[in-house]
Design brief:
Belongs to the CapA family. InterPro entries: Capsule_synth_CapA, CW_Biosynth-Accessory, Metallo-depent_PP-like. The structure is a single chain. By secondary structure, the chain is of the alpha/beta class. It has eleven helices and 18 strands. Strands 2, 3, 4, 5, 14, 15, 16, 17 and 18 form a nine-stranded mixed sheet that branches. A seven-stranded mixed sheet has the order 1-6-7-8-11-13-12. Strands 9-10 form a two-stranded antiparallel sheet. A hairpin with a 2-residue loop joins strand 12 and strand 13. The radius of gyration is 20 Å and the shape is globular.
Length: 383
Amino acid sequence: MIGRRHQVALALTAVLATAAACANHVRQDSAAPDGAPGPPAAARGFTLVATGDVLTDAAVLDRASYDADAAAGAGSGGYDFRPMLADVEPLVSGADLALCHLENGYGDAAPLSPPQLAQGLAATGYDGCATASEHVLDDGAEGVRRTLGALDEAGLTHAGAARSADEARYVSLHQAGSAKVAQLSYTFDTERPLPAGQPWALRPIDVGRITADARAARRAGADVVVLSLHWGTDRDDAPTGAQTALARELTASAAGGRPDIDLILGTHTHVPQPYEKVNGTWVVYGLGDQIGGAPDDGHGARDPRTDESTLARFTFAPPARPGGRWQVTRAEFVPQLYDLDAGRVIDVGRAVEGGADLAGVRDRIREVVLSRGAAKDGLVMGE
């Protein structure tokens, strides 16, 4: 499948890796007037943005239904998620590569999300979604097929879940600037067991498998490997010891003179968690819920932190030498808030500048994000 930014899915085999390398060489060369090869095109960097869990509950669906009726007339029977995401659309669509995360699968009844959500994400500017979570199997193998089919139809790539053993052997590669960027996705657990006879349906967190998959992605042509991890503890501002230990182990893994993983993006905790540079690699322990509905705090009361999240934005520059590591030259976080009453994702920084009374939300998110010393490594709050 080829999406809006020339996304491709390449098989993880040595044969296709060789073919991809040859094809890339041809595309990057230009012919001089006399027919001799021209100089290679200058390498171009890229910006990557990523956001956290997208969850839908009755309140979220009611708003998307209302917005669909407002656009198409009462009783349309559909859902429109574009207005919900309109405030952050400039941030998402303005990046070279935009990645999202799906918490629950697609279906016709709650707690599943309607397939129109995929269309709304694509219209906002997203290119691909991580799908490994504890809820992607809530409707079994049929739910996985339905979810990935809806993403395919919307033109979004996906990583983490699979409909077949063959699909499980593929990696999602995105073209961003001059780089091919792989997205890998894994989850700590599932609410329901894997479908009988389908161990490949979902990727569990396993260090050996992750590193093997990352190296296979490199062989398939990936210049940058982005790892999405569904991990951690609900509503915990701080990463667990298991998260930090896994981050250290994964970021220390290397082959061929460069790390196996170039960026780690965490989800599942439902609240923002810190960013930290570990072994020279940026780790976002928890992005928070971009769209989170109205979960309570476990005691019947709403936890306002579950409305908060960050949009991570990383600028990558080409390596100084062929085969070297692409370097993050700018690391940013943008505070976000899901306004449950309005049914809108809000760019908090821009809202504060416009006079909205959200400075306390911005400051709380900033305090959490920077709590492990990321500012000294250059992390800044973006606009």
